[in-house]
Fold:
Amino acid sequence: DTAVSQTPKYLVTQMGNDKSIKCEQNLGHDTMYWYKQDSKKFLKIMFSYNNKELIINETVPNRFSPKSPDKAHLNLHINSLELGDSAVYFCASSQVFTGHGELFFGEGSRLTVL
Amino acid sequence: RKEVEQDPGPFNVPEGATVAFNCTYSNSASQSFFWYRQDCRKEPKLLMSVYSSGNEDGRFTAQLNRASQYISLLIRDSKLSDSATYLCVANTGGGADGLTFGKGTHLIIQP
Structure:
């Protein structure tokens, strides 16, 4: 059983399009996150959701919007895609929000904007 | 100044050797530290937490030096399967928003 699963794994799209990436965790964790890993391999947090509430919102463009229908899901919607959005997006979850618990990552969604 | 810095490598090490690399963090208030491992085109996975007293897990030893603000990872008797990128993580804030990842150190174990 996959603990954190995200779809699609690969996404190739044109500039200006709108796309979504879905994420689900079956670990019963309270907190879920979206991370972006760019071409320089720098992993940076974008959002986190704790008990369906947005806890942090890093300085990402408002073209990115997280949606959490329930505690087990955190989807990422991106409007008006730009070339600079090309990256690998990782969903993750953790039992606690204190920063002391282990993060469980999904396999990543590789987004290429042409 | 970057909050968590690592030598990106690559470190090319013969199989069976011992390899060590460090990570420095800028926020002296950081309280918890971790090493994650990321294989090529895969997701990061927790390798080990780093405790003040240092900790060991099999061939892996992690140590924290608060005075100099660095964390180290030592791998003994390296295996081919240890080839990966090792990400240093520091909690520079009170919550998960304070988790800051380094860019990683790329390790290649050669037969």
User: Anything to note?
Assistant: Residues 89 and 101 of chain B are 5 Å apart (CA to CA). The first strand of chain B starts at residue 4 and ends at 6. Chain B touches chain A through 24 residues (CB under 8 Å). The radius of gyration of chain B is 13 Å.
